[in-house]
Amino acid sequence: MEKKNYIVAIDLGSSNVVVAVAERDAEGRPVVRSIVSKPSQGVKAGMITNIEQVSNSIKAAVEAVGEELGIRITEAYTGISGDFVRCARHTDHVFTSDPQNGVNRTDVEALFDRMRNVQAPDDETIMERIPQNYLVDENQEVADPVGSFGKRLASTFNFILCAKTPIERLNLALRRLGIRSLGMYANALVTGAAVLSADEKEEGAAVVNIGGGVTDVAVYYRNVPRYIATIPMGAGAINNDIRTLGILERHVDSLKRKFGSAVAELAPENKMVSVKGRTAKETKDILLHNLAVVIESRARDIAEYVAQEIRDSGFGDKLAYGIVLTGGSAQLQHIDELFRRVTGMEVRIGTAEEAVDETSREKVVSPAYSTAVGLLLRGAAHGDCAVTDIPRQGGAPQPAGPTIPRATPYSAGKPATGVSAAPYTPRPAAAPTPPPTTPAANAATEGAAQGAAAETAETPHRPKRGLLDKLKQKLGTRLDDFFTGSEDEEI
């Protein structure tokens, strides 16, 4: 059976799995032929917890793409995210072979060889080694050292590490479907390539990808990824809080998307919405201001953790272009304004439209597809994936050394050598204030929500507990005090 070569990306998230298939145009940009998102199950904060559910979720998305293009996917590029992905820095040096004639490529390669010999802990694997800078004789920092005069060439590398177990589980899920991973990458890195402009990468920007179970942060400066981190909290935490308002789980996401706001101040004070209950006749009235208070409380937590990670990167005051928000939850109303208020930085919503050819931009207009497009870009640079044509019924097929230290539990604060951080603990859900039941308030009810790692390898970037302790002091504060009832008037 004839085989066609495409680029295939599989982005498995905690709430959705996205599968994208593309070809390359003359300029090497992806031409997206199909992109499909399906709900995912069996993933918690990026970690696969149920292999059967995950396999079925991936299968549904892969088969949907296969039916559209008339192909069977057998190879793909995949992404991974979770607090088990981290970065650590290591500095090393070599002596130049011919100081009188300057640094040459052989010297640079010798330095890279030393970095390749750096070993990860037994329970982790090194995904990427990214040079951060080059120093000639310890006083001259250069982007490209070849040709510079000096006796000693040094560099600091950023090592991207991932625990072995999550990688093994994802590969197992793919093998069950007959799919081989041609490359597995940290989502935090590939997403930045898809949503950042050349100026943003050069002058400095932080990419914040808010997913269902985690939030990825990647800091770019002088066209180099300087820092990545994953916060084990995403839109799922917001959804859980909304459920405390008495909303059925199947209606929560729809309610949040259609009527939610990340800034309570910008939500209507007295406007209400009726949400379907357990039966066709049963409904529940929710004040949109109360809904926004619940959303803002948890979204603010995420924004504060992001702000701390940006400070921990050491580049917080160098990011001329601020923050680029992306991911499915970047579509939440006023989320950019909330991040602007919390971080004091410029914020925009980023999509992958400029990373693909003109004919594909409508297909990737949603920020939920940014990571999948980033994987397509990696694939376009490394090689095509083999897929098999499947004849359509009633028609012809369409083309289609030193050791990096072990990781410690996630915390949000400044790096501290030898200090063991306590595990991340989420804030208790807010307790709501019931909506008013006056005749005027009932008249205000509107329609229903439908469907309702440290310069050496011995000191990784692991923050202190400062921000987390500060946030914990807020935990006892009930949100009831911030809720307001509907005024006695019709809307």
Protein traits:
491 residues; alpha+beta; seven-stranded mixed β-sheet; 21 strands
What does this structure look like?
- There is one protein chain.
- The chain is α+β, with helices and mostly antiparallel strands.
- 28% of the residues lie in helices and 27% in strands.
- It has twelve helices and 21 strands.
- Strands 1, 2, 3, 6, 7, 12 and 20 form a seven-stranded mixed beta sheet that branches.
- β4 and β5 form a beta hairpin.
- The longest helix is centred in the middle third of the chain and has 26 residues.
- It is globular and about 85 Å long.
- The C terminus is likely disordered.
Shape: globular
SS elements, strand count = 21
What is the helix fraction of residues, given as a range?
A: 25-40%
Helix-strand category = alpha+beta
Number of helices: 12
CA(first)-CA(last) distance:
64 Å
Instruction: Catalogue the unreliable spans.
Output: 412-491
Rg, nearest Å: 25 Å
Beta-strand proportion:
25-35%
Major sheet size, sense and barrel closure: 7 strands, mixed
> How would you state the average pLDDT, rounded?
84
